[in-house]
Amino acid sequence: MAATTGWDEPGPDAPTGVEVTRRRSAELFVVLRAEDRSSAERDGARDALVHLHLPLVEHCARRFRNRGEPLEDLVQVGTIGLIKSIDRFDSDRGVEFSTYATPTIIGEIKRYFRDKGWAIRVPRRLQELRMQIGAATAELTQSLGRSPTPRELAEAIGCTVEEIVEGIESSNAYSTLSLDASDDSDDGAATMLDAIGVDDEGLEHVEIRESIKPLLDRLEPREKKILLLRFFKNMTQSQIAEEIGVSQMHVSRLLNRTLEQLRTSLEEQG
């Protein structure tokens, strides 16, 4: 008789932390999108999604450490991107939320760095709100043991979430830094401009790539091999025909049929 497995030693079939997060995320999105749920239930699901995915924000923010901005501020900015991702995410597309949200979070942080290079005159109310956000963030971080969400900041300060977001964004103009400035007196020292990444064109196609993966898995081995040889190994149709032992015309028909099948499946998903 097999021995039972305790909490301290999870069995081989026990779900991993990633699987638990993925499952919980899916459940919360169902509540968030359900029209028959109350506003309080949907707001609670939205807040829970923010809490659940804060580690993803912190992971993205750490990529920009040692670039002249406190990690805490980068997490706050990244959280704005997380909230935008939650509001825009469509679970019916079959893409993992973390895959969808990561480009938005990173993009928000990059925009924060770009905006830091501009001197902007901020209204007095936003300057005061920024100070309140800073003080409330410090207190809540200590009491909660983590960075607070915009909703928690709004409740602590007594304003709306939108005002919190506006206050965080206004902090971009709090100080300015030349993109040509460096932390080293040497002429060859790296500048701030060197540290800021450029837009990754590949990120724009993340959703398409993730959507097409399960479709590729359904293809017959020969069709999948033809796609691999054509688009990943850049072989011509004649070379493919020689490789798999069929005519070039047959390769052309198989390739066109497979591409049309993938295109139709993607349109049905959309």
Automatic annotation (TrEMBL):
Keyword annotations: DNA-binding, Sigma factor, Sporulation, Transcription, Transcription regulation
Keyword hit for Metal-binding: no
Xref: Pfam families: Sigma70_r2, Sigma70_r3, Sigma70_r4
Source taxon at top rank: Bacteria
Domain HTH cro/C1-type: 233-256
Keyword presence, Transcription regulation: yes
Listed InterPro entries: Cro/C1-type_HTH, RNA_pol_sigma-70_dom, RNA_pol_sigma-B/F/G, RNA_pol_sigma70, RNA_pol_sigma70_r2, RNA_pol_sigma70_r3, RNA_pol_sigma70_r4, RNA_pol_sigma_r2
Coiled coil: none
PANTHER family per record: RNA POLYMERASE SIGMA-E FACTOR, SIGMA FACTOR F FLAGELLAR
Family as reported in the entry's similarity comment: Belongs to the sigma-70 factor family.
Protein name: HTH cro/C1-type domain-containing protein
Organism: Nocardioides aquiterrae
